[in-house]
User: Fold this.
Amino acid sequence: MTAADDLDGVRLGSVHGLDAILVATPHATAAISVFGGQVLSFVPAGTADDVVWVSPLVAPPPTPIRGGTPVCWPYFAREGQTGDVPSHGYARTARWSIVAGHTTESGGTELELEPEGLGHLPLTLRMTVRVGVTLEQGLHTHNPGDATVAMTEAFHNYFRVSDVGRVRVEGLDGLTYLDKFDDLRSHPQRGDWALPHDDPRSDRVYPGAPGHYRLVDPGLRRTIEVSVRGGQTAVVWNPGEEVASGMADVGPHWREFICVEAANAGPDVVEVPAGGDHSLWQTISVSGFE
Assistant:
């Protein structure tokens, strides 16, 4: 916290039993886990329901946190990897610390964070988190070496919903998705995403996605918008009842969330040139139904 000791509304605390950086602004409150650097809470002012979901069965570190916004870096799933490597990369199980922070002109809070202990990797990482009327996150990759490095990445957003079977995701109509529940076969997306009735689960990777999605939840009477810059892939995931029953940190709670992820994954591999940089940004905003 040294870099943010004098920043109003920022303090260390605990959320879901996890050490976290707590942020309070006139516009919203948020929590960022020290373990994994992932956002564990975002509650806009005047609302009661958290935007993100964290499993009530969450395990303590070093088990990756189920919920919030895990940072998948420098690879998504185990893409392009060999041997026994952790799923979704190293950033989500690293300890993160604040390296800079300030109050924005609109009264929000901006923090810069970096993961510790990843010096063995050929890339470096820094993350921006801005808490205000919206939640903004930027994942900044730098290649200090003398050769191009390929990478994949994601903000693995777990959004809290009233019932995953009653929500829809707009902005994907007409795209083609790769279905991980169907050996990565390609399928056309017709209309908005909704949980299939005949096989209620989803693990869909949408290459070449446009970068703007709307999660419409009639039960909570709200819409969550995700706007993406620097990302070419959308991922929509929920394990469904059968798979969730074998997951100790999901179990019967599978209906409470849907993952709508901002990513560069599948065929959308990023090549960071020697001495170059790449940034993935997402902005999350919430509106109610009229």
The mean pLDDT is 96. The helical segments are 240-244.
